[in-house]
Recover the amino acids of this structure.
């Protein structure tokens, strides 16, 4: 290889490394931002985070919600972050925060699900609360909280956790 | 109860007479052609076993009642009085048995651990060694998340996901499908017992027995267009799946009528039932009707009205697939 050719290859390699670094930093920044949406243990009374936050990019969404992923992809999902919680060591719950490309995407998913067994409540730009779940949207975020046990306290506890998350969602 | 009802015996005689007439008139080829066009002579049996007290007064399924419910369902399916005898009809010592569970829906809407334990107990009573039983799905973490304890090696029952052993390198194909199969299916079991969950499915309409085989391949995400049709039927035609499949035990203890396949409590109900059959198509058809009844009760459109009727069930029953029966007149639903 000539010295000019070698220089070109080195140059290309440097550009590729730089792009990879930028993407890596960007991903880490996104991940940090989303982590801040999830209240730490006891930031919302009675709720403790159980395990780590996981994030699935749009291309990998099927690994998390295979079969339902297409609906979210059509609505412009970018990624979802999820974490498990426990309420007073009695009720287990999972929080999913979907980051859509636009508020319209979040609304599209929210509206596509019938309000069976759920009642509309004031939270974010639209919300539904049932005995074991809370779904709400705010700007380009769609948040789903599911509790795995039903008790007298579950619904109120879900609402408190939902408010805690809603106040952390930042405009993008 | 006899496996062939009296009306079926009449059908059988009628078909024999028809066959004889055809043979007399046009010879052997016509008879074979006529036989191919005819529906199977016996009805496919689907048993729905219920126990309203399956959870007692709590939310968790009671293990003892689950075992009793399992026995009741299979004894009705095979017309046997003794649970061990029932299982001996399905497996024999030396078989390596895979229980393909469904854990994709996460906690709340996955195959019950208590059900799987009950199946494993009966398999061992039928002479299957613990280490010859493998409980599996695509991912070990998902299995642990819903309460299964991952276990590999030793003389214990095996329990893990395909992530631990990977998929075969070679692509297998049938019709629209080209996939790599889980090595658990190809290398760890010669008998497959399907343990799906009764669920609505956003793309396919419903996901029950046939669709659970999406958890056997490396690329299920490629097969969701057009309501998963004909992908589901084609996938179930793969000999590696078809020749191993002995029985489906559908966990309908908690079922989902909307918003599936993930768990959404507002669209789920405590159904406290098992649905069992050796015909996955008949089972899927029956499960679909159960979901439709629940949707009607909740004031929702039919799946057809929602533009997501599970047409793959008819494809699975068609002349190119013949995986089972989807004609309700030829399905004997027995409720116990």
């Amino acid at each position: 290889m000539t010295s000019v050719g070698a220089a070109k290859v080195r140059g290309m390699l440097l550009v590729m490394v730089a792009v990879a670094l930028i993407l890596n930093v960007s991903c880490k920044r996104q991940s940090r931002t989303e982590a801040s949406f999830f209240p730490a243990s006891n930031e919302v009374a009675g709720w403790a985070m159980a395990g780590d936050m996981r994030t699935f990019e749009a291309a990998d969404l099927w690994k998390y919600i295979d079969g339902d992923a297409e609906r979210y992809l059509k609505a412009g999902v970018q990624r979802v972050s999820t974490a498990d919680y426990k309420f007073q060591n009695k009720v287990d719950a999972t929080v999913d925060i979907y980051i859509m490309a636009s508020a319209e995407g979040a609304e599209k998913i929210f509206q596509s699900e019938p309000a069976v067994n759920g009642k509309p409540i004031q939270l974010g730009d639209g919300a539904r609360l049932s005995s074991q779940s809370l779904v709400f949207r705010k700007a380009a975020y769609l948040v789903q909280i599911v509790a795995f046990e039903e008790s007298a306290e579950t619904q109120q506890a879900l609402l408190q956790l939902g408010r805690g998350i809603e106040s952390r969602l930042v405009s993008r | 109860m006899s496996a062939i009802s009296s009306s079926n015996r009449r059908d059988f005689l009628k078909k024999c007479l028809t066959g004889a007439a055809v043979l007399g008139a046009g010879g052997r080829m016509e008879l074979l052609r006529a036989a191919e066009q005819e529906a199977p002579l016996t009805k496919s049996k689907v048993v729905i076993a219920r126990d309203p007290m399956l959870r007692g007064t709590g939310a968790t399924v009671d293990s003892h009642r689950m075992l009793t419910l399992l026995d009741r369902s299979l004894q009705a399916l095979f017309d046997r009085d003794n649970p061990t005898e029932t299982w001996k009809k399905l497996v024999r010592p030396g078989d390596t048995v895979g229980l393909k569970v469904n854990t994709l829906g996460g906690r709340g809407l996955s195959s019950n651990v208590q059900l799987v334990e009950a199946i494993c107990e009966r398999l061992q009573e039928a002479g299957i060694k613990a280490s010859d039983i493998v409980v599996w799905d695509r991912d070990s973490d998902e299995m642990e998340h819903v309460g299964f304890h991952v276990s590999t090696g030793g003389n214990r029952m095996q329990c893990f996901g395909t992530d631990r052993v990977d998929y075969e390198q070679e692509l297998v194909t049938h019709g629209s499908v080209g996939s790599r199969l889980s090595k658990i299916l190809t290398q760890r079991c010669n008998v497959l017992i399907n343990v799906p969950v009764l669920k609505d499915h956003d793309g396919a309409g419903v996901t029950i027995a046939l669709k659970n085989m999406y958890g056997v391949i490396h690329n299920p995400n490629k097969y969701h267009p057009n309501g998963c049709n004909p992908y589901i039927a084609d996938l179930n035609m793969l000999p590696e799946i078809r020749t191993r499949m002995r029985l489906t035990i559908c966990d309908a203890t908690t079922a989902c009528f909307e918003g599936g396949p993930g768990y959404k409590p507002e669209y789920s109900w405590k159904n406290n039932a098992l649905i069992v059959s050796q015909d996955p198509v008949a089972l899927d058809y029956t499960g679909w009707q159960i979901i439709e009844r629940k949707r009607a009760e909740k004031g929702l459109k039919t799946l057809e009205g929602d533009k997501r009727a599970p047409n793959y069930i008819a494809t699975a029953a068609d002349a190119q697939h013949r995986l089972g029966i989807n004609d309700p007149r030829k399905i004997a639903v027995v409720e116990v």
